[in-house]
Structures are given as C-alpha cells and as structure tokens.
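quick one if you have a minute, typing this from the bus. below you get a single protein, a line of residues and a line of whole numbers that encode the local backbone shape. could you go over both lines and see whether the tokens make sense for that sequence. anything you notice is useful, everything is just below.
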Amino acid sequence: MASHGFWFMGAENAAGNGSQSPNTPRAWCQAAAQKFTGGIGSKLCALLNVGEAEKTAQAQVKAEDGSTVESCGCNKPCNCPKATVCFSDLYSTDLLPALDGDAKTMNFLQEVVDILLAYIVESFDRSTKVIDFHYPNELLQRNNWELSDEPETLDDILISCRATLKYAIKTAHPRYFNQLSTGLDMVGLAADWLTSTANTNMFTYEVAPVFVLLEYVTLKKMREIIGWQDGRGDGIFSPGGAISNMYAMLLARYKMFPEVKEKGMSSVPRLVAFTSEHSHFSIKKGAAALGIGTESVICIKADERGKMIPSDLERRIIEAKQKGYVPFFVSATAGTTVYGAFDPLMAIADICKKHDVWMHVDGAWGGSLLMSRKHRWKLNGVERANSMTWNPHKMMAVPLQCSALLVREEGLMQSCNQMQACYLFQQDKHYDLSYDTGDKALQCGRHVDIFKLWLMWRAKGTIGFEAQIDKCLELSEYLYNKIKDREGYEMVFDGKPQHTNVCFWYLPPGVRYLEDKVEKMKRLHKVAPVIKARMMEYGTTMVSYQPQGDKVNFFRMVISNPAATFEDIDFLIEEIERLGQDL
C-alpha cells in the first residue's frame, strides 16, 4: 500500500488525540521532538510555527542577570542556555578563521542549518506549493539580487538564504515530476554537506585519499554490475551525462587514431558517428566540441516506440564507408529522454563488432535499471559495449550531480588525456601513482561527486536501490493503466512504457470532439503549454511537455522521486483535468 506521506510520521503518537489529525504538522512535530536527537525536532517545530506558544515558553530561560536567553534545545534537562546572537552587527570577517570566531561561526552555521531543515520538511509537505512562481522581471524586482562593493551583514546573508529557498523549486516535493532528476535523499544530502565541508579536489590521492579510494571501489562495483569480467576497466565521475558522452566519443576517436591527440583533426580522415534520432542532444554537442562536427553525426531511424532500428544503422554505416568516411562511434541509448526507449543493444553490438566500430551506451537515464533484477533485461547486451554513461543522480536519486563514464579498456583514458603536469603528477611520489586519477580527466579541478553515491549505497544496499527503482516503475505502470482508456486521454504510442516515461495527450472537452483534424491538432498543440503554465502559477505540481517529430505537444510524465505515491499520481490526473477543463 502506498505511503501516507511525510506527516504520517506522527500518526502513532497522535492517534489517541481526538482533537488532532495524525497527519497534521502539529502531530508530526510532537513525534519529531521525540524521535530526533539534539533538539532538531523542537527547532523544526519552531521554524514551522507549530504550537508557537508552548515552544516559546519552553525555549526561553532566565539568565543570572535576569535577561532572557534561548535554551540550547537539547531535549534534556540541562543548564546550557545559548545567548541570542545579533547577526545584524556581524560580518563574514567575524567568522572563522577570525580570532575568537568559533562561537560566532557555530551560531551562524546553526542558523543556516535551521533554515535548511525547515525547507526540507516543507518540501515533503503536500499542502505546500511545488513552486512560488514569479516572472523573471518580477522576481528581479522583489529582492535586491545585485552585488555591491561593500560587505553585507550576516543578518542580510541569512535573509538572502531564506529568499533564495522561498523562490526555489521544491524538487523533493512528491508532486514534482518535471525532470529526470527529482527527490531528495537524506543520506545523500548529508554526504553532500560533508563533501563541501571537506572542500578538496579529486585530482590526486595526496589531497583526496578517501574520496579517490571510494571512487575506485564504486566504479569497480558499477563495472561488475554492467557485466565486465571482475569489474575490470576504467571510469571517472564527470559533470553530467553530456560530458560523460563526450568522454566516450573522445576515447573512441583516440582508440582508432591516437595521432589526433597531437596533430589534431587534420591528421585523420572524415569521421562519422551514429546515434538514434531519439538520442540525447549531447551526442551532437560532443561532436561539435571535439571538432568532428554535427554534420558528421548520422541519425538512425527509430521505430514507433523510439528504439533504434538496427537494419538502418548497418545500412548507414555501409553508405558512409562507400563515401570514404570512417565510422568510429555508435551511441546506443538505454532510456531515451522523451519516450524512455531502450535500443536493442545486442543487435547493435553485433553490427559494431562486424564493422569494428566503438559501441557506447548512453544509459544516463536508464542505466540504473541494471540495479533491478526485474528490469535489467532491458539492457541485455550492455556488457558488450566499449563504454557506458550512467547517471546515479537520476533514477537512483543521488543529489545532483553524479554521472559516471565506465570504460571497458583499462588505461585508455590515461593515455588519451594525460598531460603529465609536473607540479601535480610528480613521478617520484612515495605512494602508488595509479591513484592520482586527475591526469585521465579533461578537468584539472574536479568536484567530489562520489561520496554521495557511496554513502547512499552503504545506507540502502543494492537491494534498497532496487526497491526504489522498482517502485518508480510500478507507479508509471499505474499511471499508464489509469489513463490508457480514460476519456480525454490519448497515448502517444501503444503499449506499456519500458521506463517511467508515460507520454500522453490530454484532450479537453473543447478539443475532444472536433472533426477537423488539422484544427484539432492545432488546438491540441496549445493545450499542454497552457496547463503547464497554470500548474506553475498555482504551484500544485509540475510535469514536462514537448513535441516529438510530427507529433504536437504532449505531456511527458517521468517518475524518479522516491517520495511519490499512488495518491500523487491520482492527484496529477485530477489536476490536469481541473486546469484544462475550459480549454
């Protein structure tokens, strides 16, 4: 059965209170005060303005001089009052590393944490808005966002923090379905905080020893899951799937023509790459960045479900060879952005082997299905690929950003990208230099993205990720079954979706019965944008839309938020109908 939501946490403590629903914020706070240590529950209650009178009385004590000070909120009998800090008189220069800045720093950061905790709790509350939408010019005028020459007080800084979150999209909200990356994992969030606190760079073992080792361990585990023997190979975490895909193209070119590294594109023949017409735009963008050119990316036909047609791939490879071009790279997609389609990897692998072409799998969206015993069959053949992109920040709900490129051939990334800068990668260091991973990356400075994934994996285990992914796919099937025969809805393609992408049109009463097909499509094209705009203005939910080929605008519902429930799917359907009934 679906969860009753975040506020249901207080149900067991409020069940006996006839005057209070177990799903109210007040009931939740009563439970939180008992379940959270360190006074966090009490602080959340205060920040949410729940039971303010009772908490105000509890949160204040008399100092020896008779003045009122705030208690520590430690939820235990104690005598550790905390004096209220006046941030309007303090500046960033009063914080560490300033002398005697430790107490001020602790108080300032505690205020920031209190703001964040309140926002987190609010994000999971279905009674709150997903978005407090304002048009750009209006939002620019509502607050002073300009940068000044003079410093602002810490009080101003805290106000800026609150304002920023006030107008931020609540991507953790159970009814936020707009992007492939949704939700907020508490362990992942904690890991992100720790990562920022450590504030180091991933280029060498000497400055990031634990993080480098965790990247090594995790990438090996991911390669094992792909099916590469003993997890052998290579890989790196990069700033998103687009960069991971570009890495793959870079490696494929170097593998075929290593001289291109020094001599450039003028030293090689005309190269061509192949990808589905439904593939991500990053394939063309990578070709443009690498000097290969977008015209050298040949788009292969897809079937009505959005899967690449292998026979057309082979035909276009043969045609390219006949023109004197050199096919060097095929990018298959495991989970297309719009339809959620999985290209037939086994057939594509056969063609790549036959024509000696590098096979890459863009699994940025669908790669995480490898974690599910029920759904991993959709990626059968991925073990034959030369490389794979896998974004844990999508279906695995790791906080942004977290994208991995996995490579089957060990050492290729190093030889392709290394520049051997002597001020970073000295060859006479006293430890194993293979752990200085920075020289195989295109970046010099590289953010620590690994710790979020690693810590969540420790917290959930593989079976936890599997359950999370299976639940999202179950919700998408529930949506599909609810609307496939429902009046006013029409599916973009026949059959149950392979991923959590559910693509459909909503036809309002004013469009539903039009006999003129041209006029009907013209008006239907405007429906999704209008409903989406109303969603944002009301702040109730968010779901994406787009055209595809000759198809007019349709809704693309994707589910990757672990907080979503069957009730949230029902709400979405009802909200679309409510917002579109007059169109």
Observations:
- The chain has 19 helices and 14 strands.
- The longest strand covers residues 326-333.
- Residues 1-25, 47-69, 73-77 have pLDDT under 50 and may be disordered.
